[in-house]
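Hey L., structure's done. Input below.
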Amino acid sequence: IDVQVVMTRDTDIELASPDSPHKKADDLKTRLQLAQSQENAVFVSIHMNNFPIEKYRGLQVYYSENHPFSLTLAQTVQDTAQNALKNTNDRKVKPAGDSIYLMSHLEIPAILVECGFLSNEEERELLKSEQYQKKLALALCAALLEYISAEAQPR
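Output:
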């Protein structure tokens, strides 16, 4: 499978002009335009979760309701990650709703992956581990390749 990866960013920077009075909004609009300018694009936003209560843990995938394949993509990622990471994560995929700007505006298959909870001490230590990071990255990569392969098949 020939896959071209286009990163919106690989460091924690905003994609907005330094003198912009609306940096966050400009950053999101820039990422939206970049994603929409790619032919046959699939959008994957990768994050770490945080919550005031420490007990919550586990990878969680949210999907855009603007494209019918987003749910399939989300389920593929959630299932593959659960199998690969072999943990007790019983989280289910969820629609992103309107509160997540990119998910509510993209018209392509789009998901947001919360890789785990930094607020959970045990999970935070896992997420800091290079070995676990590689395992997580491989699970996400495998899921995306599985999805892309399935979608490339004639119907």
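Residues 27 and 149 are 31 Å apart (CA to CA). Strands lie at 43-49, 60-63, 94-95, 110-117.

-- N.
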